[in-house]
Write a structure and sequence with these properties.
With 421 residues, the protein is α/β, with parallel strands linked by helices. It is built from 16 helices and eleven strands. Helices cover 53% and strands 10% of the residues. The relative contact order is 0.10.
Length: 421
């Protein structure tokens, strides 16, 4: 089999594997375990198929080897998620095992596949004597961390942690908060007290907790009027939904457990789809703990399903009281002094673009983003980047700050080479 035939076989095999993964979940039971595994497995499988397709378009052997390495990593991710799925659905092992065999074959093909434009050595071909290099040493391997790059983050709540992460992976941290959280004063927050009355009267069917800090503040305010025992007793009659681990941890801190935890990537889409799988919300009275800004898409999706929704705003996002540092770092972006920009919250970008527009630097900022690696923590932040017509060069395998910094540090130099030829 020729090299080009091997590459084509790999491409076709990976495509069929991705289709198999997409079809797999239609026949599996809808459980919290399968729901949690579906998104990362589908992402890994479809990315693997795209990687294998891209192998045939590599312009050089170095590019081919880089793409093959990325494909091998995604194949390994597929094996991991399929093994977890096999353990979770013991009554449906056969299709999962068939897919495990398919991805094992893809891994084997990747290990023997070579760049199609490079002739492979063969005993039947004459072997020419090696030509000594003429002052052309091979290019050095790309670093596997930031290696001194200046990494910009607008993180506010976890400045110390973000600074430490960037330094741990070899970067020069430029961490400038782009927002602050302002709790709504008690005298202005009638929504929380109205929710408390509804809760005590048994007029709440579902409570959706979206953020950890919002959950903590909500219970702090409620406890100014009710005992924690009364609150806990009332919540026993309510379906409590937490959007990911942070509100779940805040709930556990007051001795309570959620009925439903929304899986990654924890966007409003997952909130709605998880509720759809649990039970229809038509006719249910749904209390929604909001965060820095209201989410009209989530509100509308719940209303379309027939729920009676009442939002509970807890805090608001605002620009930092002093924006001098933020203006300065925007200037550094425009001047080409930043190599990587990390977006860990969609509201960060709103505030940055607000200042950019005030200073009349919108086009300069957009042009600067074409020459830096723009890394988004997940779908919500990526959606906001698209809103402002900004590039998205990287999303991590999990929407976690530590995962984002670690994974982008490994790929940043290859990404920069593509953006700064």
């Amino acid at each position: 089999m020729t090299d080009s035939q091997q590459t084509e076989q790999l491409r076709a095999k990976a495509k069929q594997f991705a289709i198999g993964v997409l079809k797999l979940f239609g026949g599996l039971p809808k459980t919290p375990e399968t729901h949690a595994i579906e998104a990362p497995l589908v992402k890994a499988a479809t990315t693997l198929a795209a990687d294998c397709r891209a192998l045939a378009r590599a312009w050089s052997e170095d590019e081919f080897l880089t793409k093959r390495g990325i494909a091998a990593g995604n194949a390994d991710d597929c094996v991991f998620w399929l093994e977890l799925l096999s353990a979770a659905v013991t009554d449906h092992e056969q299709p999962v095992h068939a897919l495990l065999e398919d991805v094992a074959e893809i891994v084997a093909l990747l290990s023997i596949c070579v760049e199609s434009n490079q002739p492979r050595s063969s005993a039947a071909l004459p072997v020419s004597p090696p030509v000594p290099a003429q002052n052309e040493p091979p290019p050095p391997p790309l670093p596997i961390d930031f290696h001194g790059l200046r990494v910009l983050s607008f993180e506010s709540r976890m400045v110390t942690e973000m600074t430490g992460l960037i330094e741990r992976y070899g970067g020069v941290p430029v961490v400038v908060p782009a927002l602050r959280e302002i709790p709504i004063p008690l005298q202005d927050n009638g929504a929380v007290f109205r929710f408390g009355v509804r809760l005590m009267l048994g007029h709440v069917d579902i409570l959706i907790l979206l953020t950890g800090i919002g959950t903590k503040l909500l219970f702090n305010v409620l406890q100014t009027r009710y005992t924690m025992a009364d609150i806990a007793g009332a919540l026993k009659k309510v379906i409590v939904v937490t959007r990911g681990p942070k509100p779940q941890a805040a709930l556990k801190a007051v001795g309570l457990e959620p009925n439903i935890t929304v899986p990654e990537p924890n966007t409003w889409v997952e909130v709605v789809s998880t509720l759809d799988e649990y039970r229809p919300v038509k006719g249910f009275r749904v209390a929604l703990q909001e965060y820095g800004m209201s989410n009209p898409d989530l509100l509308e999706a719940l209303k379309q399903r027939g729920a009676e929704v009442f939002p509970i705003p807890i805090y608001r996002w605002a620009l930092p009281e002093e924006v001098g540092l933020l203006r300065h770092v925007i200037g550094e972006m425009v001047d080409g002094k930043i190599d990587v920009m990390l977006i860990t919250n969609a509201a960060q970008l709103d505030h940055v673009m607000q200042l950019v527009e005030q200073e009349g630097k919108t086009e300069f900022f957009k042009e600067a983003c074409k020459k830096v690696v723009v890394a988004s923590i997940g779908p919500t932040a990526s959606e906001r980047l698209r809103h402002y017509d900004l590039p998205i060069d990287f999303e991590p395998s999990h929407s976690k700050m530590g995962v984002l910094v670690k994974e982008v540090s490994k790929q940043v130099h290859a990404l920069l080479q593509a953006k700064r030829p």
